[in-house]
Design a protein that fits this description.
2 domains; single chain; Rossmann fold
């Protein structure tokens, strides 16, 4: 599209529906939405002037997510933005015609949202989170940070992470190559999280929090339990380390939301959703919390410090 055409303003106010798989008071979600709106603004779209944005903050309650998906579809928006796999699944069940742009979705083909990333067809496209191979990287980084750990547990919720299988297999392969035992720990509540971490801590172990909207929503409980039982732990996004987690390694989600704004812009200007390829992450960040490392009696290896993107003192 030529610059002059892009600069033209639409003759009617457009509506964007946003379904977020986070609680309304989550600071991470607020930062992501701010980045999204800022990126839209640079493309000529301003809330209250030529777009209206309707938000629904659903957390990880599946019934609530579905109810909010129905509400948003009934508003008949021009495009829908969805954060997390359950949010996309709920919207797909409500509409096959309204364009859906997703972010922070893992394995969209496995989840049944399309059969091709290059040419999605249909009404769904967006920005995938990470590939299953990253789970092996989490195990390797944990072992590098805490060499004495010979056992690792991986936390996830089967309801919010139906794509978990390939991730678990990747983690198992990495653990086997490092002569580590891997324990798979499905959890559905704070109580189950605390019980799983307590049981894991009966022998010297490490912990992996998988990329999973439930794990993200309950990160405070997980981080506190890991600290209580002195378990070195690695997580999928940078805000875990900022909240006190030892290590995080994963995609830059703010970048994902900025790129999603470009897709929303293109759809609002007439491009077909199904012609826009699903894109993989382009930016990954490794973050280490030195305060947590010191509390665990760990020294960050020099080779790791050379690769780190951010150190939290």
């Amino acid at each position: 599209m030529v610059a002059g055409a892009r600069a033209q303003q639409p003759d009617r106010k457009r509506r964007i529906g946003v379904l977020v798989g986070l609680p309304a008071n989550d600071s991470v979600g607020a930062a992501e939405m701010a980045a999204f709106l800022q990126a839209l603004g640079k493309l000529g779209w301003t809330a209250g002037r030529n777009i209206e944005v309707a938000y629904r903050w659903a957390g990880t309650d599946m019934d609530r997510i579905q109810s909010f998906a129905q509400e948003l579809v009934e508003l008949r928006p021009d495009v829908l933005l969805a954060r997390t796999t359950p949010a996309v699944g709920a919207l797909v069940r409500e509409t096959s015609t309204i364009p859906i742009v997703f972010t922070v979705v893992t394995e969209p083909i496995v989840s049944g949202f399309m059969t091709s990333l290059a040419r999605p067809g249909g009404n769904v496209t967006g920005f995938a989170n990470v590939e299953p191979s990253i789970a092996g990287k989490w195990v390797e980084l944990l072992k590098e940070m805490a060499p004495s750990v010979a056992r690792v547990g991986i936390l996830y919720n089967p309801m919010t992470a139906p794509y978990a299988g390939p991730f678990l297999r990747s983690a198992e392969a990495a653990a086997a190559s490092l002569a580590m035992e891997l324990l798979i720990l499905p959890v559905h509540s704070d109580a189950e999280i605390k019980g799983a971490v307590a049981a894991l801590a009966e022998t010297p172990s490490g912990l992996v929090g998988m990329t999973d909207s439930f794990i993200n929503e309950h990160r405070k409980t997980i981080i506190e339990a890991a600290q209580q039982y002195r378990l070195p732990a690695i997580y999928s996004f940078h805000w875990y380390a900022a909240d006190g987690g030892l290590i995080s390694y994963g995609a830059d989600v703010v970048d994902m939301f900025q790129r999603a704004a470009a897709y929303v812009d293109r759809i609002l200007r007439g491009e077909k959703t199904g012609n826009l390829p699903v894109q993989q992450p382009t930016k990954f960040t490794l973050v280490i919390n030195l305060k947590t490392a010191r509390a665990l009696g760990l020294t960050v290896p020099p080779t790791m410090l050379m690769r780190v993107d951010q150190v939290i003192e």
